[in-house]
């Protein structure tokens, strides 16, 4: 039997018997017999449509974490081989930015769904077709809804609700869908299980009766108070967001331990070489290493975090030597006695790149204008050397596909340690060479990243005890939110489809993966980036977000979501007025989002949930715009975001 079982064989026989009995009688039908069998481990509210959907759902949340089914057989519902997305890290709830997936068979008319260009109707419980409600406050959450545009005839087409703000930790949310019709105009009816819960027809049913009291109190009650008639509902369910400790505890434990260690004993630094005139816009590059405590079991790809008996991450007892590079532009190399010290910019590289990206000509040109030095370190876990190990995990053990996040914890530790090294030991080691003596100002350490360097930068800067100002170029939050709209993820999604042939289940797997990705995703750490900062953080941290309309690699929606979550305004002038985001004119003495228009035709890449197949100039172009460079230079120096001329 195919592993994806919407109804068990016994359940199908029971339904056939019920149909035959109804056809054989001319008498008025009585109540439906208790024959509906959702199958073991399936969510009974819509199991005839799909065993796991809707997802996320508190149906799958247990006292010891999220579990999909109770045995390996049930994991077959999302693939031809057993897959447990939570095997290595079983979360106590669901992601901070969940991709909320329902499957409703048939051809749905999406005209009634609020799209991301006009999501405001989702804030009106009285009229919105889809509703996401904070169960504690009763307040609706801004979101949009869409059908998968990539589904071809014969494929199951998921309906996905995508929040446009980060959800609150340890908070329960209610999802409701109503008023949908088919393309032929006919109303879409509720699935059997949910209809019985809605219509109070659960007595005696082994799967539904245990849910009835909670549905009445926790779902139908709040929806009714919000003005949603229960008889209108096609589906409704709830889920609880994971706790902050569950998602961020490993990294914050590492941060706390590392700060204590490096404050007492700064990292040892060794200078290996100075390479002169590597390119036209780079005067010289200094390469070396610094020491960092290891929090993983090996210094290489595939490393896993080391834990004590209580499950908390601890230092392994080993030390790694982490390579770094310093990129020095001509303006800094030409300095003379009495000139001000250059600032030091920690640079974050892109998707599966490495520190050598900080040695590129384009960055050298930028550094030359800024009178600054760049410090490059690999984001271990998502660097060039990790790529093959990740592909191997995805191909051979899909359950481990996202465990590169373990090594990425070490990558963040390395970035923190690099700043500690730069404060003193690095300068001391550089002093042996007259060309590198007093190379930068150790009190003015900033951050600049693009693409994945800005995405991971959102996490790093929140954790950093040193960085007070950061520029995040073409950034975003929420990896699973980005996946269906980002060109770099196209090959990953195609790889998923090799072992999960069903498009609906590929999306379910991607949605489940966010629970692991939350551990390193900036969406988790956003509440601590600008406000409620972690202990030992610098005062009054500020960020500048720069992005271009129509980015093929990082969807504009993810950048705008980051700005909305951080509470930063959009600086005017802007070609596109971002929904539910404050617009500010003139300069901003603080943080802001700045938009650059490359004049691409509509619809822009990222408008719909299909990864762009063609690259464009936007993603790499923003960082090269003279006005963007001028703006980031002024911001890193003064903390003021100036309007683009």
Structure, described:
By secondary structure, the protein is an alpha/beta fold. It folds into 3 domains: 202 residues, Immunoglobulin-like; 200 residues, no CATH class; 157 residues, no CATH class. It contains 18 helices and 19 strands. A 9-stranded mixed beta sheet has the order 9-10-11-13-12-14-15-16-19, sandwiched between helices. Helix 7 links the parallel strand 12 and strand 13. Helix 5 packs parallel to helix 9. It is globular and about 85 Å long. The chain starts with 8 loop residues before the first helix and ends in a 7-residue tail after the last helix. The N terminus is likely disordered.
Question: Percent of residues in beta strands?
Answer: 15-25%
Q: What is the count of β-strands?
A: 19
Q: Whole-number average pLDDT?
A: 91
Major beta sheet, strand line-up: 9-10-11-13-12-14-15-16-19
Return Rg in Å.
Answer: 27 Å
Q: What is the CATH C-level name of the largest domain?
A: Mainly Beta
Largest sheet: 9 strands, mixed
N-to-C span: 65 Å
Tally of structural domains: 3
